[in-house]
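Researcher: Next entry in the queue.
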Amino acid sequence: MKEKQIKRVIDSGITDIYLEEPEFWMRGGYSNAFKEEWMNYYGTPWQDQQGSPDMTYLSNKLKYWLYYRALDEIFSYAKEYGKSKGLEVKCYVPTHSLINYTSWQIVSPEASLASLDCVDGYIAQVWTGTSREPNYFKGVRKERVFENAFLEYGCMKSMTAPLGRKMYFLTDSIEDRAKDWTDYKINYQATFAAQLMYSDVDTYEVMPWPDRIYQGLYDIA
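Model: Structure for this entry, 221 residues:
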């Protein structure tokens, strides 16, 4: 990837690089490549993560490490190669919040990214799709889009507080699941209001998929 992708885009003059969603689904970890990485990392043959709680932990720890290593190697290469060409390359990680990753059972190295000097900032990928995930409050499970979005944006914002790294908030009016336009509008307004509560963030990723906004066909409730 470093030679085929990163070098090529830097040679084209691109100086901002975003590596989208470095994440593993917890249910993964069965490919031959993963089994080989298991042997390299632990020095023992691969074991099925469903075999015991210990194996579940070891499997997810390796998933965590693989993406941490990938980001470190690729971003470090990008910065060094850019420097050799007289360019200052900035590297960003667009990622869901840890709240959402826990809810959706996804493994991410997000909690350790502060230790990577090659990371310049993040895009907080919070939108209706993540924030409408039902949660419990006082024993009642239901969607709480505004409240959940507020917590998700805050979780992401806290990642930049100690280091002063750049933070973008995703603001997306559509979600992946098929809903009518009224549903999209109400929940977009809820997530947008939540991000405005963080007044020190004033940079946004707007309409990451404009084709599905302008070219999609949606029911009007």
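Model: The CA atoms of residues 102 and 207 lie 25 Å apart.
Researcher: Noted, moving on.
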